[in-house]
Amino acid sequence: MSSRATAGLLRNMSWMTIPSLIVKPAWFLFITLVCIRYMGLAEYGVMTAALALMSICDGYLTLGSSPDTIRDVARDRSVAGVYFSNLLVSRLVMSLVAVGIGLGIRVWLGTGALDVVIFAGAYVFSRNLLDYCRALFRAHEQFQVEAGSTVLEKLLVIGAGTWALTAAPDAASAMMGMSAGMGLAFLGTFAWTTRRVASFRFSDISWDFYRKALPHAIPLGLSSIFVLLYYRTDSIMLETMEGELITGQYGLAFRVTEAMVLLPYIVTSVLLPRLSSLLEHNTSAFNRLFRQGMLGMLLAASVAALVVWILAPWFIPFLDPSPDAVPAVGLLRILLISFVLNAINQIGTTHLTATHRQNRLAVILAVAAAINIGLNLLLIPTFSAAGAAWATVVTQIIILILFVPVLIRPIRAAS
């Protein structure tokens, strides 16, 4: 790549990184230390399971609209308004359906806390719509706008969630405040998107668009579903099989590695629109950028995981000094292995998305999700939360193995 293109990538990463370094630690401390200190590990387990359930249900129905929009609008920005009008409406309708499905599943499982599930559904609903607005920012490589939206979201969610916890220190109150903050963040981001990035017009909504776009988007949507399954099913299974306290211990360890996902999130957010653009006219630059991204991700993720692994015995007691939190140290160290593997696999996912190989990606992740669910069913009854953690590691290893034959061959220019 030229020095100008490299400078552009670094600038985009800076816009994603600097605000995140400000708000992400605050978010992490809120979703772990503040929530656990106010509500305790058992209520924290209830909240973790409710969010996991709603995230899975919502993921089933987003239909891969975000990566499909980023890829296609990055190549032709004139279609941004059409994509935005059609796919935001589809997300809104599908997310409402997802909330109803999640509530029905909770009633069927008989684990109670329906108010927590309803508020978790409202939170995930607003977050889903907000994330689609950000897809338009990325497609236009307006990462400074996404940075502002992220800061707004975290300030509102943390502020409203903390206020709600001080009023009533339980999972339902926390989720109520968080959902209110997320709703306000979506409304603000939507207003900016329609005025500055892409127009929203009901006249652009057509069945013809869905007929043409959905066959490309659905495999990406299925991929997201399979990812959610092997990332979130374990919490639901743990609550059902082992109870709320163990789910809270696992949720504490999981939140640490979830916060670390900021690293691959920033890199892949910048890489996807750039790789999509390079594929059309410069495959050698595409291959070079992909290799650099893969090697850089491996190094950075390994160093980050090693530091957290060493600090785990001090870090977990900082978040929750109670004896009940001690098992989270061992769980965190297992999940750190999964974090490194996942970081590498995220680059592979970005490669397959940019190169229109979403069908192959969906198949790979479907196999991994099925294996993960089976491993959780097998390991949790015997090894409890540690079984769930090792199931996640094995799943990431399987994904990496399935990615290798696809990714070792460089992309060649069309003849």
In short:
This protein is mainly alpha-helical. Helix content is 88%, strand content 0%. The longest helix is centred in the N-terminal third of the chain and has 58 residues, at 3-60.
Major beta sheet, specifics? none
Order of helices and strands: HHHHHHHHHHHH
Radius of gyration: 21 Å
Shape: globular
Percent helix: over 70%
Q: Tell me the distance between the termini.
A: 22 Å
Mean pLDDT: 86
Number of strands: 0
The proportion of strand residues reads under 5%
Unreliable segments of 5+ consecutive residues? none
Account of the 3D structure:
With 415 residues, this protein is mainly α. 88% of the residues lie in helices and 0% in strands. The chain has 12 helices and no strands. Helix 1 crosses helix 7 (207-242) and helix 10 runs antiparallel to helix 11 (327-354). It starts with a helix and ends in an 8-residue tail after the last helix. The model has no long low-confidence stretch (mean pLDDT 86).
Annotation keywords:
415 residues, mainly alpha, 12 helices
Secondary structure layout plus pairing:
Layout: H1 3-60, H2 65-75, H3 80-109, H4 114-139, H5 143-167, H6 171-196, H7 207-242, H8 244-260, H9 262-281, H10 283-319, H11 327-354, H12 358-407
